[in-house]
Amino acid sequence: MEQLQSVLQIGMRVWVRALDDALEQRYASRIEDMTDRWLVVQRPTDEHRSLPIGRGSPVELTVAITGQPGKDGQYRARTVVLGVLTDQRVPFLQLAWPENWERVQHREYVRVPVSLPVRLRVMEEDDEGPGDSAVEEAWVEGIMRDLSGGGCQVAVPLALAPRQEVEVEFRLPSRAFVLPAEVQRVDVSPDDHRLRIVGLAFTDIREPTREEIIRFTFQRQIELRKKGLA
């Protein structure tokens, strides 16, 4: 468990989820004020409507810490709403200060099925020149089968081995991504022996970039549940 009093700041982005929300949807908010006993965040809104989170409601907070050596990462904590402050133009929630924050491990990121075009290329070490720089191989096209904030699974016609370093390129509705990754697992596709099913873990990824991917995976999860597919 972690204590984050020294790194949380007023104005920092947080995500709020009502624990009694069946859809488990997170909403963006922001820290407006804080002490060592409570913190105040903007009351989340959905299409300009304040969500029905009131006094006594249990909530989960998620925050991404960057630029703090030893603390960088994503954290979450559970707490309760002490009160709703409505004397301002924008309503606020006063929350009890969470006693413990839990660092979110990569394996805990929500993984959702997708079917997206993807390109992959191997990054090889050049041992012939000074500095052993990386050599970029040709891009190989494939299909992304699932995605999470920690990595993805792709099907590509490319022979790979665990621990190889690659770059993966794909596009989400927000924008295109080109991310470094490490091969975690390789299996032969049961449907086409020319394809390899490759599990990748993102490496050297900035937390704001990871947050973009996480937002997509949460939205995708909600869509699948509405269709009865998750």
Provide key terms for this protein.
230 residues, Pnp Oxidase, Chain A, Thrombin, subunit H, 2 domains, six-stranded antiparallel β-barrel, elongated
Description:
The chain has 230 residues and is mainly beta. The protein folds into 2 domains: 13-104, Pnp Oxidase, Chain A, CATH 2.30.110; 112-226, Beta Barrel (Thrombin, subunit H). It is 9% helix and 47% strand. The protein contains 1 helix and 16 strands. It has a 6-stranded antiparallel β-barrel. It is elongated and about 65 Å long. The chain starts with 12 loop residues before the first strand and ends with a helix. Mean pLDDT is 83; it is low at 126-134.
In short:
This protein is mainly β and 230 residues long. It has one helix at residues 207-226; strands spanning 13-18, 27-34, 38-42, 45-46, 49-50, 58-65, 73-85, 92-96, 102-103, 112-125, 134-136, 140-147, 151-156, 165-171, 176-188, 196-202.
| Widest β-sheet, arrangement of strands | 1-2-3-8-7-6
Task: Domain count, please report it.
Answer: 2
CATH topology of the largest domain: Thrombin, subunit H
Number of helices: 1
Shape: elongated
What structural class should be given to the helix and strand makeup?
Answer: mainly beta
Please give the largest β-sheet: 6 strands, antiparallel, barrel
How many DSSP-defined strands? 16
Unreliable stretches: 126-134
What is the CATH H-level superfamily of the largest domain?
predicted glycosyltransferase like domains
Give the CATH level 1 class of the largest domain: Mainly Beta
Assembly classification:
single chain
Reported CATH architecture of the largest domain:
Beta Barrel
